[in-house]
Amino acid sequence: MKLGDGSTDFWTLAIIVGLACVTVLTRCFFFILDRPWGLPDWAHRALHYAPVAALSAVVIPEIVMTQGHLVSTWQDARLYAAAAGAAWFFWRRGVLGTMVVGMAVYLPLHLGLGW
Amino acid sequence: MFFLRSVRRQPEFREGMRVMAPMAVGIGAWGLMTGVAMLKSGMSVVESVAMTLLVYAGSSQLAAIPLLVAGAPAWVVLATGFCVNLRFVVFSLHLRPYLMHMPRWRRLTHGYLTADLSYAVFTARYTQPPQGAREEAAQEAFLTGGYFVTWCAWMGMSLLGIALANFIPQAWGLGFAGVLSLLGILCSMATSRLRVLAALIAGATAVAAYALPLKLNIVTGIGVAVLLCFWMEKQFGLDASTEDDR
What we know:
The structure holds two protein chains of two kinds. Chain A is built from four helices and two strands, in the order ααββαα. Chain A is mostly helical. Chain A has a two-stranded antiparallel ribbon with strand order 1-2. The two termini of chain A are 27 Å apart. In chain A, 43% of the residues are buried. The two termini of chain B are 36 Å apart. The mean pLDDT of chain B is 88. By secondary structure, chain B is mainly alpha-helical. At the A-B interface, α1, α2, α3 and α4 of A face α2, α3, α4, α5 and α6 of B.
């Protein structure tokens, strides 16, 4: 699927079905089988870091990169929106507030100033 | 399991719904923005609806969107979704004694429908697994009532978001709301110093390795962060589990 063409692609649908299987697999991981079992120690330890690392690896490039390059200007609404959202989170907690505050900063800068 | 009358008849079903109801507003608003974000990022209506109805995991959906749009290979999308969902693997270990008395199809249905908030509310209400048939039925009904509310709020508002997204111009950049939601989840998961470090390393690596083909910078970021954190644990004698309890 290419950006913005909005047409349905069979392969994309297949990946979506795969993601649904990933949801079932991860949410049921330890009670799929009837007999009790455990993970090796290294996998247990990786569970502490892998989720936060995965999100960060997805999120950070979406904030600081444009067309494959690090943003070279401070006039980018995403930077201020992300900073405001993160500041809100550490002040008040709550994912919803992070998004609302971030968009409240993003939209005026993006639509008003064209950043 | 809300399609089973025997579960709905238990008084705990309503109790679970009541406890979850105040949180439905936040879940619904997040679902709405996820719906808008999917379409505004360039996915088709059919793809967005399929993703909403089938995947039912906000963070892995939002993480998958930029990868799908960039044409990343299937295994990278699935591996990223798996890593983003790894917290559920930890939850499933906790839930196992609560569910093992049921047949497998029933366990899997409950597991699939139990997301972050349902898990948190359920395990806070019942700190011990059930003893005897009465408690088994009560706990199952409470869990079901809770995720029934979550599921309705999420599905209804996501589909509404998909419907409304067509009336919103692409230039508004509303897809960025999805990134901001992920940022919020990211912040909520950065609960220890080592996890903050893991996030910073993974983010920096993903940026530095951006030129890699097939969106491999994501997998590289995860790998480098996990390995460096292992090394830090050993080097400074830190313990991940005690750090988490902070």
